[in-house]
């Protein structure tokens, strides 16, 4: 078995069966090609390519999703979460959903300008825009590119509602923008906490901030008056499901207002990547984990159907849901739902801004 790349999630760069893409190694400089003295493969470097889209708001008509529009400032995600359902999108770029997804990233620096143009159209109808629905808007490269912040500045200027989903405490750097929006009923943040176990987190989400940092972010956001919710998505049976009650307890103590969860999904190329990850890190229970996932997903690795893809099916799914509901009620996370305002929206100023 090939040795795992240090601090990366995927164990391989498999080809895409859907597009017949070749298996490739992520490109790098000579330091990435050399073998360390002890025979371990050296860490892969992260590369960022500038992408020039014509529009920045993505629309969807999925009946089991609560939003109809989103913004993704980046493609690919350095967090490297092995379960990430966005991994297959890299195949459309002739790149692997494996290591390429974690190391070959795309940034959209024109996003704030494109957003301003789209919001300025007379035909635009205001509804909440979701960030973090595909890849994390606060992954490490946001610290340099600040594209997410630029988009929030545009939305704050015109009182446009926003939701943010992230597993990074970097979101707290934008409290100066988000808190005033929240005070007007325009913003809510979802923090993803899938495990509190440091060892599991290091392999499951290798470059995401430590779970304790995420809980601290919940506290900081809550103290700033920002509605913050905890997302236990995904719950991985036999790996993280035993932590459900403890995560909810800790999140409630940190100031979370409500919670939600999803059973793990393994669409397209994610399934073989996840299986390889299990064999690498949990060989003692790999078969049991997949058998449980198959029972939740109707005998398959994945169920793509609307509604059931979010809930799962069968006894295991019902057990997870029952535990979640009981614990949510116990810790006061079962009542509040957020409804963001749209009546305050005003179209942004033109390129020269308003003079008066």
Structural overview:
This protein has helices at 30-33, 99-103, 111-120, 142-145, 147-157, 175-183, 198-204, 211-223, 244-254, 270-281, 286-296, 308-311, 314-330; strands at 47-50, 57-59, 69-71, 74-75, 104-107, 129-131, 162-166, 187-192, 228-235, 259-263. By secondary structure, it is of the alpha/beta class. The strands form two sheets. The protein has a seven-stranded mixed sheet, with helices on one face. A three-stranded mixed sheet has the order 1-5-4. Helix 9 links the parallel strand 9 and strand 10. Helix 5 (147-157) packs parallel to helix 6 (175-183) and helix 9 (244-254) runs parallel beside helix 13. The longest helix has 17 residues, at 314-330. 43% of the residues are buried.
Short summary:
This protein is of the alpha/beta class and 356 residues long. The chain has helices at residues 30-33, 99-103, 111-120, 142-145, 147-157, 175-183, 198-204, 211-223, 244-254, 270-281, 286-296, 308-311, 314-330, and strands at residues 47-50, 57-59, 69-71, 74-75, 104-107, 129-131, 162-166, 187-192, 228-235, 259-263. The chain starts with 29 loop residues before the first helix and ends in a 26-residue tail after the last helix.
């Amino acid at each position: 078995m090939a040795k795992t790349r240090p601090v990366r999630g995927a164990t391989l760069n498999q080809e895409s069966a859907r597009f017949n893409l070749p298996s490739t190694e992520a490109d790098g400089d000579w330091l990435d090609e050399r073998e360390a003295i002890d025979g371990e493969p050296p860490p892969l470097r992260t590369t960022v390519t500038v992408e020039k889209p014509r529009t920045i708001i993505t629309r969807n008509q999925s009946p089991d999703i609560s939003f109809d529009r989103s913004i993704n400032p980046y493609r690919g995600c350095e967090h490297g979460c092995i379960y990430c359902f966005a991994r297959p999108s890299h195949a459309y770029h002739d790149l692997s959903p494996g290591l390429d997804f974690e190391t070959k990233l795309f940034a959209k620096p024109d996003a704030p300008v494109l957003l301003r143009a789209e919001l300025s159209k007379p035909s635009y109808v205001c509804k909440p825009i979701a960030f973090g629905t595909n890849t994390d808007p606060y992954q490490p490269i946001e610290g340099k590119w600040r594209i997410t912040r630029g988009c929030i500045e545009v939305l704050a200027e015109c009182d446009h509602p926003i939701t943010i989903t992230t597993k990074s405490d970097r979101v707290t750097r934008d409290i100066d923008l988000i808190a005033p929006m929240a005070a007007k009923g325009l913003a809510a943040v979802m923090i993803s906490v899938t495990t509190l176990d440091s060892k599991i987190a290091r392999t499951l989400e290798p470059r995401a901030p430590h779970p304790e940092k995420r809980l601290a972010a919940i506290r900081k956001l809550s103290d700033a008056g920002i509605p913050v919710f905890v997302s236990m998505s995904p719950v991985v049976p036999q790996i993280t499901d035993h932590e459900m009650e403890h995560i909810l307890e800790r999140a409630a103590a940190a100031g979370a207002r409500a919670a939600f969860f999803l059973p793990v999904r393994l669409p397209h190329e994610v399934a073989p990547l996840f299986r390889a990850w299990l064999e690498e890190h949990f060989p003692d229970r790999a078969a049991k984990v997949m058998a449980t996932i198959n029972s939740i997903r109707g005998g398959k690795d994945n169920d793509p159907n609307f509604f059931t893809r979010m809930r799962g099916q069968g006894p295991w799914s019902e057990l997870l849901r029952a535990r979640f509901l009981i614990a949510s009620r116990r810790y006061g996370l079962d009542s509040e739902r957020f409804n963001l305002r749209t009546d305050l929206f005003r179209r942004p100023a033109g390129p020269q801004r308003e003079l008066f």
